[in-house]
C-alpha cells in the first residue's frame, strides 16, 4: 500500500492508523501546495482531486477520504481492535464520531486556512469550533478515548485536526478533558512515529 500525505494535513490520521496497524506501507509526500511528488511528477495524475489522503492498494486501485481510509485500514487488522466490528452498535458510534469530526471539526478549520477569507467568516468558524470542542470535552469526561477506554481510529482523526489549533492560535485550556486526551494521544508510540516521519516532531 501507498499512503499519499502532506505533512501535518488530515492525512496524518491514516498515517497514525497505519503505524498502529502494523501493516506494510509506503508513505509518499504529496504537498498540498505544490502537488509535486518526490519524483517530480504531478500528484493530480495519481489523485485528480489533488488533495490528501489517498491510499493506493496493492492492486493499484485507490481509496479517498480520511474517514473511509481509516476504517478500511482498521478492518484489515481486526485483531488490533482499531474499530468495532461491522454491523455492531459500536461501529455506528465510531462512524458517528468520524462523520462529526469530518463535517463539524475538520471543515470548520478550512476557512481559517484560506488567506482571502473575510475576518467575519473566520470569526464564525472559531465560534463553531469552540462550541464543538466544548461538546467533545464533555463527551471525554471519564474516558480515556472517544469510544471509551480503548483507542480507535476516530482518536487518530480528531488528534490530527486538533493539532491545527496551535497554528490557528486557538486556546484549548478551556477544554481540560481534550487537553488530557491529547497528551495521552501524543504519548502513543504510533503517533510519535507518524509525526516524526512527517517532520512534525
Automatic annotation (TrEMBL):
Pfam families reported for this sequence: GST_C, GST_N_2
GO molecular function, one term: glutathione transferase activity
Domain called GST C-terminal: residue spans: 87-201
PROSITE patterns: GST_CTER (PS50405), GST_NTER (PS50404)
Keyword Transferase: yes
Classification via InterPro entries: Glutathione-S-Trfase_C-like (IPR010987), Glutathione-S-Trfase_C_sf (IPR036282), Glutathione_S-Trfase (IPR040079), Glutathione_S-Trfase_N (IPR004045), GST_C (IPR004046), Thioredoxin-like_sf (IPR036249)
Taxonomic superkingdom: Bacteria
Keywords: Transferase
Entry's EC annotation: 2.5.1.18
Domain GST N-terminal span(s) in chain numbering: 1-81
Protein name, UniProt field: Glutathione transferase GstA
Organism: Comamonas flocculans
Gene name linked to the record: gstA
Amino acid at each position: 500500500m501507498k499512503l499519499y500525505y502532506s505533512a501535518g494535513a488530515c492525512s496524518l490520521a491514516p498515517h497514525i492508523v497505519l503505524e498502529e496497524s502494523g501493516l506494510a506501507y509506503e508513505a509518499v509526500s504529496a504537498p498540498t501546495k505544490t502537488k509535486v511528488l518526490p519524483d517530480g511528477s504531478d500528484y493530480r495524475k495519481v489523485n485528480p482531486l489533488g488533495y490528501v489522503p489517498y491510499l493506493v492498494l496493492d492492486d493499484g486501485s485507490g481509496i479517498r477520504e480520511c474517514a473511509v481510509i481509516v476504517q478500511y485500514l482498521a478492518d484489515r487488522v481486526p485483531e488490533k481492535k482499531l474499530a468495532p466490528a461491522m454491523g455492531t452498535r459500536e461501529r455506528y458510534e465510531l462512524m458517528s464520531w468520524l462523520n462529526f469530526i469530518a463535517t463539524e471539526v475538520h471543515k470548520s478549520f478550512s476557512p481559517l486556512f484560506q488567506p482571502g477569507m473575510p475576518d467575519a467568516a473566520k470569526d464564525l468558524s472559531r465560534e463553531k469550533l469552540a462550541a464543538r470542542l466544548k461538546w467533545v470535552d464533555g463527551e471525554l469526561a471519564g474516558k480515556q478515548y472517544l469510544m471509551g477506554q480503548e483507542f480507535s481510529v476516530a482518536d487518530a482523526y480528531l488528534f490530527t485536526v486538533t493539532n491545527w489549533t496551535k497554528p490557528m492560535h486557538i486556546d484549548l485550556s478551556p477544554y481540560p478533558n481534550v487537553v488530557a486526551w491529547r497528551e495521552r494521544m501524543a504519548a502513543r508510540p504510533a503517533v510519535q512515529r507518524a509525526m516524526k516521519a512527517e517532520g512534525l516532531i
